[in-house]
Design goal:
It is built from 5 helices and 7 strands; from the N terminus they run αββαβαββαββα. 27% of the residues lie in helices and 14% in strands. By secondary structure, the protein is of the alpha/beta class. It has a domain at 1-81: Aldehyde Dehydrogenase, Chain A, domain 2 (3-Layer(aba) Sandwich), CATH 3.40.309.10. The protein is globular and about 75 Å long. The protein has helices at residues 19-34, 66-69, 87-95, 110-119, 152-157, and strands at 38-41, 56-59, 76-78, 99-100, 102-105, 124-127, 142-143. It comes from Cyprinodon variegatus. Residues 1-165 form the Aldehyde dehydrogenase domain. Keywords: Oxidoreductase. Pfam families: Aldedh.
Length: 169
C-alpha cells in the first residue's frame, strides 16, 4: 500500500486530515494491542512531514474488542478467524455492529461471494479486492456510517428536487 501525496494517482492512502485523527489512530492501535489482538504490521506514524499513518494489520481480533466494533477511518485492517462453512455465523458477526460503510470478502467461491455480499449490511462490498472505487459507482454507508451517497447517480440525486404536477384544464 503506497502512502503519499493524495493527488498522485498511484497513492493508495494520503495523510490523515488533522493531528487529532492521527492521534485517534495511534490510540486505536494501542487499544487493539492492549486487548490482545496481534499487531502484524504498522500501527505508527510514518516518519515524514504530515499526518501520515502506516498501513496496519491486526490478527487474532475477537468480536468484543474495540478495534472490531469501531471504525478507524485509517489504513487499518483487522482479521478475525472463522470456521469454514459457517457463513451465516460470519454474517451475524459482521452485521453485529452499528456501522456499515464498507466490507471485504475474499473467496474463490463466487456463489459464496454473492451470497455474503447480498446479506452484509454495508453500503459497499468489495470482493477479492479492497477500496477499488469508480466515480460511476455510488459510495456510502448504512446504519451509523452516514446518510446518502458520494459518487455516481445517487450522489447527484442529493442536488435534485423531484416534483410531480398534476393538472386538469
Amino acid at each position: 500500500m503506497k502512502i503519499g501525496d493524495p493527488l498522485d494517482r498511484s497513492t493508495d492512502h494520503g495523510p490523515q486530515n488533522h493531528k487529532a485523527h492521527l492521534d485517534k489512530l495511534l490510540e486505536y492501535c494501542q487499544m487493539g494491542v492492549k486487548e490482545g489482538a496481534t499487531l502484524i504490521y504498522g500501527g505508527k506514524q510514518v516518519q515524514r512531514a504530515g499526518f501520515f499513518f502506516e498501513p496496519t494489520v491486526f490478527t487474532d481480533v475477537q468480536d468484543h474488542m474495540f478495534i472490531a466494533k469501531e471504525e478507524s477511518f485509517g489504513p487499518v485492517m483487522i482479521i478475525s478467524k472463522f470456521r469454514s462453512g459457517e457463513v451465516d455465523d460470519v454474517l451475524r458477526r459482521a452485521n453485529a455492529t452499528e456501522y456499515g460503510l464498507a466490507s471485504g470478502v475474499f473467496t474463490r467461491d463466487i456463489s459464496k461471494a454473492l451470497y455474503v455480499s447480498e446479506r452484509l449490511n454495508a453500503g459497499t462490498v468489495f470482493v477479492n479486492t479492497y477500496n477499488k472505487t469508480d466515480v460511476a459507482a455510488p459510495f456510502g454507508g448504512f446504519k451509523q456510517s452516514g446518510f446518502g451517497k458520494d459518487l455516481g447517480q445517487e450522489a447527484l440525486n442529493e442536488y435534485l428536487k423531484t416534483k410531480a404536477v398534476t393538472i386538469e384544464y
